[in-house]
Amino acid sequence: MEKNVLFVVNPVSGDLDKSQLIEAVGFFAVNQHVHFELYETTGQDDLEQVKRLYEQLQPERIIVAGGDGTIKMVAEAVEPYDVVLGILPAGSANGLSVDLNLPTSLEENLEVAFSDRFMDMDMICINGKKSLHLSDLGINADLVKNYENSDTRGMWGYALQAFTTLKDLDAPFEVTVTANDETYQSAARMVVIANSQKYGTGVTINPNGKMDDGKFEIVILKNLDLMIFGQIITGNIPIDSENVEIISTDSATVTTNVPVSFQIDGEYCGPQTRLDIKILEKRLKVAIP
Fold first, then answer.
1. Distance CA 185, CA 178 (A)
2. If we measure between CA atoms, which residue out of 144, 121, 120 comes closest to residue 192?
3. What is the DSSP string of 177-243?
4. pLDDT of 225-257, one tens digit each?
5. d(CA 96, CA 133)
6. How many CA atoms does the CB half-sphere of 53 hold within 13 Å?
7. For the segment 250-278, what is each residue's pLDDT rounded down to a tens digit?
């Protein structure tokens, strides 16, 4: 019996034309003797549609082409099922693929996406929402909000919004973290909830992060001047012990003294004053090199 593969593509992610990509995946699937079903996201009811297609096709694999947001949506749709996710990075933010050390060429990526090697990856639950990768409170979430509302995409769009975000910077906020039966208090510019190590720009924000160890890290960035924020965006954050505190745990509560912008995996979620966070162990099979 022929195996089924569901291919989910975000046609607008990263401002890239996906027609060649779709053709290449179709060709690869034929050579692998698998039946290939295409679904292009619309931004309307995608999660439900992917669920419905999964139940209909019972695919043994789902290939996802898009950025972190598309991958997260598919992961949430198929979380209850036993299926391997193959990732083809094709968004403006591809942090997860950077952390999985996925190759840069499409040919090599297809080999990985269809291969038998996979990782049982953890997810994080934050206020009932799922996160695969990196979520944060503060300055980067402001940047995500500004980027979502702007017309310029890609790295140039990010750079432009980074300037705007820094220009309109609020005062630092006070954060309280309760984890591992301890309470930490600090002034902060940014608080990262990390399941992995790097942002899509290649910046290591959480050097000891592992996506399958049953833990997540809370990274508190206390000072974030123009210099350091520039380094974060370009990929060279100095993890300076005085300015950075990292807490590793499997559950935590984070509260702030004022509402602070919050984003999950590149999706802006509005201002928050409290986050209830817990790890969801080994929830997702992801193909790896």
1. 9
2. 144
3. EEETTEEEEEEESEEEEESSSB-TTS-BS-TT--TTSS-EEEEEE----HHHHHHHHHT-----TTT
4. 666 666 665 655 555 667 788 999 999 999 999
5. 6
6. 23
7. 999 999 999 999 999 888 899 999 999 99
pTM of the model: 0.86
Return the number of other C-beta atoms located less than 10 Å from residue 50's C-beta: 22
> Coil, strand or helix: which one is 153?
coil
% helix, strand, coil for the chain, step of 5: 30, 40, 30
Owner of token pair 């100095």: 238
Burial per residue of 267-285, b for 16 or more beta-carbon CB atoms within 10 angstroms, e otherwise: bbbeebeebebebbeebbb
**Encoded tokens for 161:** 């919004």
DSSP conformational letter for 14: G
Q: Report yes or no: 95 and 200 within 8 Å, Cβ to Cβ.
A: yes
Whole-number Å distance between alpha carbons of 46 and 9:
11
Residues 6 or more apart whose Cβ sits within 8 Å of residue 36: 5, 7, 25, 26, 29, 30
Q: Of 80, 39, 78, give the one whose Cα is nearest residue 61.
A: 78
User: Cα–Cα distance between 102 and 157 in angstroms, integer?
Assistant: 24
